Amino acid sequence: MATHIDLNCDLGEGYGPWSLGDPGADDALLAVVSSANVACGFHAGDPAIMAARCATALSRGVAVGAHVGYRDLVGFGRRRLDVPPGVLAAEVAYQVGALQAVARTVGAEVGYVKPHGALYNRVVHDEEQAAAVVAGIAGVDPALAVVGLPGSAVLRHAAGAGLPTVTEAFADRGYLADGTLVPRGREGALVTDPAAAAERAVRLARDGVVVAVDGTLVPVDAASLCVHSDTPGAVPVARAVRAALEAAGVAVRPAAPGPAR
Q: pTM, whole model, 2 decimals?
C-alpha cells in the first residue's frame, strides 16, 4: 500500500475569454491537487492563463508541469494527427520552453512534462512518436520528468534517455482490460460520480488495481493520479478523491523530482 501519492490535474485549458469546464474550476482545483499540468498553447491555454495558473500553483505549493499536445486548438488536441517526428520534437520543445519562460516570470519552475489527449494515447504504443516527444523534452532540459501510463513507450524512451519517469493512473477515466483508457465518446469513458472516483483512487493507491469496464481487474502501478478540469463536476470529484486518500492514510504530495515549487 502506498503511503503517499501525487494528485495531478490538467488545467489552464482556456483561451482568451473562453474557458473549458466550470468557471473558477482551476482555482478550486489548485486548492486540492499537488501537481498542475498547465496547457502550453497548442491544444489550449495562452500566455496570460499560463502565468496565472503558475502563480497560483506557486502560492499553494503545487508542482507545475507542461501539458504538451498536438498543435490542434480546433480539436482541443484530441484528434490523432500524423506529425513528422522532427516537427513533433520541435513542437514539444517549443511548448515546454514557453511554459518555462512564463513560469519564471512569476517565480515558478517547471518540473515535469505530460502529453495531452491524442498525443498521450498515441505515445503509449507508437515508438516513433514517443521517441520524438522524449527528444523534444530532453533537448530543452533532461532533468524534466515525464508522466505517462505504466508500460508506455514514452516512459520507456524517457528512461532510456536518462529522464526521470512518473507512472500515472486516472481517477475520472474508464479503463479497458489492456490497461489503456476507454476512448472518449464511448460508454464508460468518464467517471463523474465523486464517490466512485474516490473509491477508485483509494483502490489504486492501496491495492494497485483498477476495475476495467468489462469487470477485469487491471494491475496499475501508479505514482500519480489524474483528474481532469473539464470532467463534469471536476471540483467535487477532486475533493472527494483527496479526502478519501487522506482518510485511507495516503498522503498527497508531488511525485516529480525537481526544484521546490
A: 0.94
Beta strands at 110-115 and 224-228: parallel, antiparallel or unpaired: unpaired
Checking if the pLDDT of 202 tops 50, the result is yes
What's the average model confidence in pLDDT over 224-251? 96
- Specify whether the CB–CB gap between 97 and 136 falls below 8 A: no
Question: Rounded to whole angstroms, how far apart are CA atoms 138 and 105?
Answer: 22
Chain centroid offset of residue 113 CA: 8
Average pLDDT over residues 75-87: 95
Fold designation for 4-252:
TIM Barrel (3.20.20)
* pLDDT of amino acid 257: 62
Is residue 230 pLDDT above 50, yes or no?
A: yes
Q: Is 176 helix (H, G, I), strand (E, B) or coil?
A: coil
Cell of 78: 484530441
Instruction: Give the DSSP letter of residue 126.
Output: -
Side-chain half-sphere CA neighbours of 240 within 13 A: 19
Supply the pLDDT for residue 16. Answer: 86
Q: How big is the chain, counted in residues?
A: 261
Which run of H or of E encompasses 165?
A: strand 165-170
Write down the residue that cell numbers 478523491 correspond to: 241
Q: How far apart are CA 154 and CA 137, in angstroms?
A: 11
Beta strand pairing call for 4-11 and 251-252? parallel
217-219 and 209-211 strand pairing = antiparallel
What does the domain layout of the chain look like in residue ranges? 4-252
**Angle at the Cα of 225 from the Cα atoms of 219 and 231, rounded to 5 degrees:** 115
